[in-house]
Amino acid sequence: MTGSAFNRKYRLFVTQKPVAEPPSKGEVLTDAYSGDGSNFDDLRTIKETRETVLIDQLQMTADIRMDIGSGDSNEQTSIISVYNLSNQTAARISSKGAQVVLEAGYESDGPQLPVIFTGNVEKSITRFSGTDKITQLFCRAASGITSTVRNVKQIDEAEDTSTSGKTYKDAFLDVIDMFKKNGVATSNTSINLDFSGNIQLKPPAETPLRGGFATDGYIMDSLNLLCGMFGFTWYIMGGVLYVQPYRFKEYRNTYLIEPTAIKSIEPLEDQGSQSQTDQNTISGVRLKLFLDGEIRPDLLIRVPSLKTLKGAYDFGTGDLSGDYVITKMSHELDYMNGAWDVIIECTSATAKASTSEGSE
Description:
This protein is 13% helix and 37% strand. The chain is mostly beta strands. The strands form six sheets. Strands 1, 6, 7, 8, 9, 10, 11, 18, 19, 20, 21, 22 and 23 form a 13-stranded mixed beta sheet that branches. Strands 2-5 form a two-stranded antiparallel ribbon. The N and C termini lie far apart (59 Å).
C-alpha cells in the first residue's frame, strides 16, 4: 500500500479492558457501579498495568456515524480499520470491551488533536485485501456503561408545587449523575434542562414530581424514558454526555461554516413536495466539509450566503444560507488515500424556532 498523509494527523489509543482479580485478605470491596450491589461483580483489585496501544503512523480508516433523534439514545458507532499491524498488536487491540479513543485533525492543530470518537470495542475481525492485513474494530460510544450499569434509585414525589418540592429536573440530574460516576463526563454546555421540547409540558425544573419517579433498569433506559417525556435527546460524543431539548435553537451556540471548508452542499427537500424548484419545499441541507473537530450536534450551524461570493464557491444550488440544526453526523476518514471529512445533515432552524415560540 502506498499513500501520503499530507497535513493530516491522528492518534488512536486502545486500552485493554480492566481485569478484576480476587481481593487480597482483609481488602474492602466497593461497588463497581452506582446501584444496590446485586447481580454484578464487585470492583476488586484492578490491574494497574492496563496496556494502552498508541497507533499514529499506519494507514487508518474510520467510518463514524450518529443520528440525532428525540427520546432514545443516539450513541456514536464506528468502524475503525488499521492496516498491517503485527499479529501481537492486532491481538492487543481487539479484545471486547477495550476502550478506544480516536483523535484526528491536522498538523496545524499542534499537540492537542480534537477527539472524534470515544467508545468500546464490541467486536473485531481481521481480513485481507491484496497484500494488506486489515484489523477492523466495531465500536460503540460508552457501550460498556449504557448497557450494563443499572439505576435502581427512587425519587420521592413533590410535597407541593412550589419551588421547594422535587421536580423532574431532580430525576434528570439523578440519572445524569449515574453516568458521571461511571466515567462519562459532562460540560458546562452539554446539559440543558431549562427548556421543554414538548409544547404541552413546562421545562423539567417547572414540572413537579407528582407521584414520584422510579426506574429499575439500565441507566440508558431511565434517560430514554425521561427524554421521551419532555421531547429531549441525549447522546455521548467525545466521551461527553449531552442532554438537550430536541429541535430547538434557543439554547445553542452558533457555529459559522467558512466557505473554504465546504466541499459540497445540497438541499434536502421535503418528502411531501412534488416540486424540485420550489424553495419552500427545502427542509434542510447536507454539507460535506473538510474535517473540523469543532463541529458538534449541540451547535446551531450557520451557512453563509454563497451567492455573494466569487464563483469559486458556487455549488449551483441557489441560496441555502441560514441557520440549521444537525440531525445526522458522520466522519469519513482515510488517512493516506482518501476522505478526511465530516458530513452533516441539517434541518432548518427557522421552522423549528416558530414551533418553539408557539409553546410559550
